[in-house]
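This section describes the prediction task in plain terms. A model, or a person checking by hand, is given the sequence of a single protein chain and must write out its three-dimensional structure as a string of tokens. No templates, partner chains or ligands are provided. The sample shown here is typical of the held-out split.
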Amino acid sequence: MDRLVYVYGLIPHQEIEEHPLRPDIPGFDGDPLQAVDCGEVTAVISGLDAKLNSEEALKEKMEKDMEWLQEKAFHHHETILALYKNYTIIPLKFCTIYKNEENLLEEIRGKQESLKHTFTVLQGNEEWNLKIYCDDNVFNKELVLHHSEIEEKRAEIASLSPGKQFFEKRKLDQMVEKEIEAEKTRICENVHARLMEFSVHSAVKKNWSKDMTGAHEKMAWNSVFLIDSNSVDRFQDIIRSQEESLKDKGWRLEATGPWPAYHFSSFS
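The expected answer:
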């Protein structure tokens, strides 16, 4: 039976030698996980039936069978989390599949040096995610209430004739909207800058919609950090302190981690 190779992640070979892979962790289609020696790097894989998991078959399942997709994507994520508890891991994307072990070995051996460098960067560090939410109704009222320039402009408009007031109010509304967005960005950038003091690397990601987050507040910031394990407590202290100072203005900070280093390692 022809077998494809489903790859979960890459691990330093020395770590696998010290702590062999558990034989009872099921793979993508039920086969146990296997450790494939690729020199100084070990690939964690499972076998796949080539007939049942052809490129065309997988594409059709991803497009038409949401239950299957959710189940398999969850399995992939949970397997990587289980490996992350015991190893330094470069996690690979969902459904990373090779025709055979020889093709996988050839690619990994051509990237040994860059992979070794990545392992060096990841060891002793943790990936954390920070999402910042803002209740626009609360924050907008708070900003307008304490913004002297806006108050001065409103007083100036009140002294104008009704005809002029209409156009000036429209200008003021535009000014208020611009000030609100600028202030929200400034607050988020300040929080991010404080946390970068404890970060080996950081990145700002695209904000999620309310449909994705399920939160009633709007996401204002979405970032990831690679943190020295010894600095995580201080990192979290800063987040709690920032949230405490901002919560009355409609802000909420949500930090999650540690996660496998999805954003600070890559293997194309």
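For orientation: The mean pLDDT is 88.
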